[in-house]
Here is the input.
Amino acid sequence: MHLKKVEIQGFKSFPDKIEIEFNKGITAIVGPNGSGKSNIADAIRWVLGEQSVKTLRGSKMEDVIFAGTNTRKPLGFAEVTIVFDNRDGFIPIDYQEVAITRRMFRSGESEYYLNKNACRLKDIRELFMDTGIGKDGYSIIGQGRVDEILSSRPEDRRNIFEEAAGIVKYKTKKIEAERKLEKTDSNLVRIRDIIIELKSQSEKLKDQSENASKFLQLSDQLKELEVNILIRKIHEIERKIEKGKNEKESLQIKIDSILAEQGKIEGKLNSIKAKIKDLDLSIDQVQEEKAETLDTLNEYKNNLNVLEEKEKFYLKDIERLTREIEDLNNKLIELENEKNLLLVDNENVEKELHSLRVDFTQKNSNLERINVKIAESEKIIEKEKDKIIDYYNLITDKKSNLNSILSFKDNINKRIKQIEGEIHNITEEIKDAEALLIEIQKLESEKKEELVNINKGLANLKLKEKDYKDSLDKLYKTINQNKIKLQSLISNFNLLKNMEEDYEGYFKSVKNLLLASKRDESLRKRLVGVVADLLKVEEKYIKAIDVGLGGSLQNIVTKDEEDAKYLIQYLRDNKLGRVTFLPISTIKGKPIYISPVDRERYHILGLGSELISFDRVYKDIFEYLLGRTIVVENIDYATQVAKKFNYSYRVVTLEGDIINIGGSMTGGSLPQLSGSLLNRKYRMESIKKEINHITEILDKLEEEKINLKSSIDSNEKEIKTLEAKLQDINISIIRLENERNKYSTELNRGNEAITKYKDEIKKLNMELMDIEKKEEDLNRQLTLLNDENSSLKEKIDELMLEFEEGKAIREKAMKEVTDTKIQINSLENRLANNKEKLEKIEGELKNTTAQISLKENEIKEKKKEIDIISKDILSLEGDIDKLSILEKEQENIFHALRDEKDKYMEEFYLEQSRFKETNERLTGIEKQKNNWELKEAKLSVQLDNIYSKLEEEYELEYDEAIKLLVEIEDLDKAHEEVKRLKGEIKKLGSVNLSSIDEYRAVNERLEFMEKQEKDLLSAIDDLKKVIKDMESKMEKQFLSYFHTINENFNKVFSILFDGGKASLSLEDEKNILTCGIEINAMPPGKKLQNLNLLSGGEKSLTAVALLFAILQTKSTPFCILDEIDAALDDANINRYTSYLKSFSNKIQFIMITHRKKTMEIADVLYGVTMEEEGVSKMVSVKLSDPLEEIAS
Here is the structure.
């Protein structure tokens, strides 16, 4: 595999799309400092998943997007694509070519693509894990990577060794397994807390469940007795209703007799009404005719006024038109005068134009002659200039050669000065060695004092850490307590929700229908909903509304009667029982009116329909059900209200007592309302609110936990910082001891180096003498060429002077031609303007003459109209006189008819009083009949109440109840037995009927949680085993590679330093997977010492040696070296490039450099320039170009 190409667009200083193709072997990317060549390495790091902004040399990730320049706008995104040749299958993916793309937008959104398919950053990382490629690998080595190796913290060096050893994938899996283990432990704690809570719930619910079972048994016995008593009551009420019907029939005969008498009276009244009606018609007709006459009379008078006004208007119009004709005649005279003046001006302009055109022709001919002469002079000057360019090229070549010689001479002088400087430096170093030894002892003393202070600081921080952890433990306990409470609430909520979904607590018939509607779409569409689901009620009114509605809570609302009929038929066909339906289209609520005074006086809380909330669509439904039910606080107020309204309405109290229509009272203790449909809804809403409240508390506790953890992390960082400082001081003390030994060795090496440098200066002086001879010869040649070039320049200057004089004459001639042309154009424009004005005046003359003619005709027409109007006025005055006479005649007829109508009205009032007397007798009899009907209604209400009680309390229709009828010998004993059973039920106290299902549900959940606990314990054991196995594999693999890298490091170090030794060692061999790695090096002529005690150049070359050792142990298909040769001197560069070249047949190298020696080994060179400020561009570079020019 090898890196095939990189495409960059919008990344850092590359706004335009560039494509760089790479071949096998060594490729160098070169360019001056600041040109953006290192941005190419950053682009490759970035596309491979680098997330560290610091590594990418920015302050925020957005900095990788081109930020714009003075001439270019910022871009909205950055995109980099890297393409690999994967024909050898190095990357474990079924593609011969692999393209990875990363795109980032200024909004912060980032995208990754693998062969143009969207993927995750995790997928990219896993693809290159343990290959050496990637953000943590060693395929991209820049100064930052070198610094990481040179870091004084041995643990910072581990990443590169782990990547080389191929254990990164294992390490990642181990971290994931540890995270899963931590999460599983947390889940186990939570589940154990839930189990404790569920066991507690189970014990409580067991007693409640037994109590509820006993309650149901007693309720069944009570039901049997009460049903029998109710059936007997039904029979008694039906006998009373029959008696009332007979009384009503007798009263109806009397009513019919009175109605017959009233019929005769009504006949006479109708006859009189007919005559009065005829007279009314005649009166109306006369009034209409009179009104028409008056309307016509008024219309004629109005028309007369209009004609008179019209006549006046026409006379005024004639005066106006006469004045306008006079104005137009004056305008005609003015236009004729203006026309004559323009014609005279045109003659004068034509004469002047003729004279100017002759002058223009002469001046233009003179200008053409001057242009020909100037063109000839220009050709002569161009020939002479070509000669100068030839001389200039010769001079430039000579100067270029001279500059090369001077540059080489300058380099030799610089080298001599450099060597002299080195000699001076070495001499100074020898002098300073003794002074440094004294300084080292002083530093050693200071470091030991600093060590004591740091140890004190560490002790304080560790005490602080203990306090933080204690607070965190308390916080965890609080969080767990709240989580247990939340889980309990959720369990209760889910239990209630399941009961609601299963329609627990509904009549069997209602439940059957609702369950069927879940399965059948046609049924579901016909159901609007159950009454209980369509209302909301405050907690304090629940008992009152529950009792007030009773079984009606389970009535089903439909849109219309058709749906209700369909559903009744469905129940009958499927034998599912009986249900009461409330069609919205037919139910009409008739709420009673209670005045505000009565409400206050009798402590009325409101009508049942007023104390609930519901959708306006169901207004009639709830007014029908509760609009005639009054709600009060207690039984005392209830009795007062019932008396006030003559026991005509139902009254319920907040405790659930009820006074029925007619006066019967129901009250006492109620079973616990937990099984009530309304209470269940309220409980669900209440639990939901509590769940939300605890969730908010948990969110705040979690936030507190995060803050506390942050404080712990911050404290731990301080501890680590101080520990690192402690380690640094210990290392510094060791380094100072080693330096004491170092300076004596360096004295001998310094003297040897001085001798070597003096020999080199002699050689360089010999080369300098040869170069100076060549310089003298080139200077002589340049002098001759410059003299010849000067004489040519003088000749051109003379020709140029003549040329400029000719140009001045031409400018003057051109000005004269232009001025004449401007005068001609001015006069031609004047003629054109005069022509337009004349045409306009001619048009206005015609228009004015036409207007005069039109206005004269208009005056004639107006005079004719005035004659016609005068005739119409005379005619109208005659018609008005005739209509005034007719109006008086119609007034006399009207008065005669009205007198006749008054006589008939007297007769009508007499008959009407007779009818009133019979009507009073009829009202008395009907009142008696109504009293019987009221009694019958009350009995019917009692009957309905009994039927409702059977249906609502016992879910029985009359036909079903009659089957339960048994012989009761003594009705009083039966009532006593009912009383006894109710007493037994009362003793049971509050009964939670849902506890039976809740107890079963809690036990099922407890069994499930205990199984979950076993599964989690098993999972924890499995995870611990997996982690242990991975640690064992990682240790073996890491040690194997570590020893191989150590051996190779020693070999490579010896080659690059031309001698010496180097080694790697683990800080703590008992903790192979976490300990730091020490680097020890012994350059030629020195003792084995820690990396920190080497000089800057030695450190850099040691780091390079280690990187080569890793590549030799586990090579990567390609390696990018970003200016890692910057700190190496020429001697080290030669060894570095030689070793690099030996690797190039195995590894594809891409080097970013500006070192000449490094460029020399490259097979391909790419140049990066910044011609436009802030914008990098790629340029092709020839290997034949001088390397000094390429580097700069």
